[in-house]
Amino acid sequence: MSRPPRMTVSATTFDAPDPRALAGFYRRLLGWTVTEDGTDWVTLRPPGGGPGLSFQTEPVYTAPEWPAVEGAQQMAAHLDIEVDDLAAAGEHAEAQGAVLAGFQPQDDVRVYLDPVGHPFCLFLADGHR
After folding, report:
1. Verdict on whether the full-model pTM lies above 0.85
2. Judgement on whether residues 107 and 53 belong to the same structural domain of the protein
3. 123 near 80, Cβ under 8 Å?
4. What does the alpha-carbon distance between residue 74 and residue 65 come to, in Å, rounded to a whole number?
5. Which of 10, 64, 109, 111 is a Cys-bridge partner for 75, taking CB atoms 3.0 to 4.6 Å apart?
6. What are the pLDDT digits (tens) for 117-129?
7. Do residues 106 and 120 share a domain?
8. CA distance linking residue 13 with residue 77, whole number of Å
9. Which residues pair with 124 in a beta bridge?
10. Hey, is 7 helix, strand or coil?
11. Within a domain: residue 24?
12. Rounded to whole angstroms, how far apart are CA atoms 105 and 119?
């Protein structure tokens, strides 16, 4: 049996009506650096290296429903973001434009929606995951 080719995840990509605006939100939220900045594609990378986040234009973007509702656009993926202070991280996320989701399924996790409706979770390093 031959060895499979080397594969490395480079980034997770989010659709958005305006990729620069959404990338700006995550840049402020995470403190990451823009490494590629095009009209329809923006990539952020963490300071220490590793997989990044990319944002691409989707002109017919529809925000997912959280929690899921039958017949509506559903979330396909979300970010889990480890934090050292849940309350402070939540305040920071809201200051950048995030909205606390109306449904919170766990006491030690906070679900937020980014400016175009992608859910993401904040959780304590020693708590949830």
Report:
1. yes
2. no
3. yes
4. 6
5. 64
6. 999 999 998 754 4
7. yes
8. 10
9. 83
10. coil
11. yes
12. 13
Maximum separation of any 2 CA atoms in the chain, in Å: 53
Dihedral over Cα of 63, 69, 70, 75: its sign: positive
Kindly state whether residues 66 and 56 are assigned to the same domain: no
Contact 75, 84 (CB under 8 A): no
Count of residues in the chain: 129
Classify residue 18 as exposed, middle or buried by CB count within 10 Å of its CB (0-12, 13-18, 19+).
middle
Q: Domain limits at 107?
A: 62-129
- d(C-alpha 69, C-alpha 73), whole Å: 8
Measured at the CA of 34, the angle between CA 31 and CA 38, to 5 degrees, comes to 150
**22 domain residue, yes or no:** yes
